[in-house]
Known about the structure:
The protein is 45% helix and 17% strand. By secondary structure, it is α/β, with parallel strands linked by helices. Helix 13 (394-415) packs antiparallel against helix 14 (423-443) and helix 14 (423-443) runs antiparallel to helix 15.
Amino acid sequence: MDKEKVLITTAIDYVNDVIHLGHAYQKMLADCVVRYERLKRGKDKALYVTGTDEHGQKVYKIAQEKGEEIKEYVDKIAKRDQEQQDALNISYDRFIRTTDEDHIKFASQFTQKVYDNGYIYKDTYKGLYCSGCEAYKTEKDLEDGKCPLHPNLEIEEMEEENYFFKLSEFKGFLKEHFDKHPNFVLPPQRFKEMYMFLDDLQDIPITRRKEILPWGIEAPFDKDHVLWVWFDALVNYLTFGHQNNFWDENTKIIHFLGKDNARMHAVLWPDMLEAAGEYVLPTTIYVNAFLSIDGKKISKSLGNIIRPADLVEKYGTDPVRYYFLRYGPIVEDTDYNQSHFEQVYTADLANGLGNTAARLTKLAQKSGFEFPIENIKDSVWEEDWAKPFEECRVDIAAQNIWSRLADLDKHINDNEPWAVEDKDKLKNILTYEINELRIINEIIKPFIPQTSDKISASINKEKITFSDSLFPRL
């Protein structure tokens, strides 16, 4: 049985730099799903939280290297990150920051619960650490002695007093949960990858000494330690969800994140929730793949970083949203290049939706007929075109909509309303086509909401007006 409410989250981004297209893809994916859920359930039944991860060694070191006061630095990057998301029309209900007072308080209380329940103890860690991942590593996590996600960084050898989380005690619990919930991690190949980690759960450090890292949330049980950045950051979802009564048995909770963050979300996070003792687990963890640009990994050193706002300035918000929602790395790694983007823009948007809307509204306006507005049934969000949303496959849902658009275009070409002289016949043809356009315009809202609003201004009234220039020619 479907749950009453939905909470959608994305991974929150480190403020070591401003987000790029690879980070932004995840925000567009989550935004499309939450817009769909709001239309299906009602605006107050689906919430969306995203934001910034502002503690940890990496951020502290970068601020030091830049000679900037740490709080001023994180404030600056968080503001710019939010501006990038706003350029994409991301409809978050909150942009949370791990330096927010309510999060600091909640993360501290959460950690105290885990401590009080006996799952945190003091010991000395001796091993490996990747500052890029802000994560502890074993030899088998490395490739040729390097972290595969950050091969340009040296792995640090550490010996340090820490408090540890008893992750090893949750092996049976987590395997049972995976076995009972085959959609706990999606897509299926990511489920299999995460399942492989469950046989080798080891206790992990969850604090750093303040004398080594003074930037973080103070451990509630020891003022000389700060919380490890991951133990702090993951709690942001709960900070928001719990305070809004969106973290309970009646809420479908979906985390969107990239495959570099999958292990922390699929293995560590559910065990943290179980250790705290009073919280439900997320329903689904959706793990998207990586985006490259012109065949190369997105990298500052390669100089190939593209900021979302720059692409929006050139092509517009909705074309950027449509392209990545339809052709982004939702399952497999995907490469972006400008040529393909412009081909899609021309074929799917300018010659597709834009042209169909323009010629049909022109025919309807010229006919002089009135086209009474028919209520679009709520069930439109549960029809076959939308079924892929059940597994977060917005790419397939978009494909289904554009297939329906192609059918409408074929109907126009086959019936040639411009050549029909019989008024009754013409009205029947145009009435069907206008109503079909109205349905299509409704179901594109999660994908390209600004364009839908423009088309609505032409067709959501009895006297249709001409809708032109939705997508200017390149």
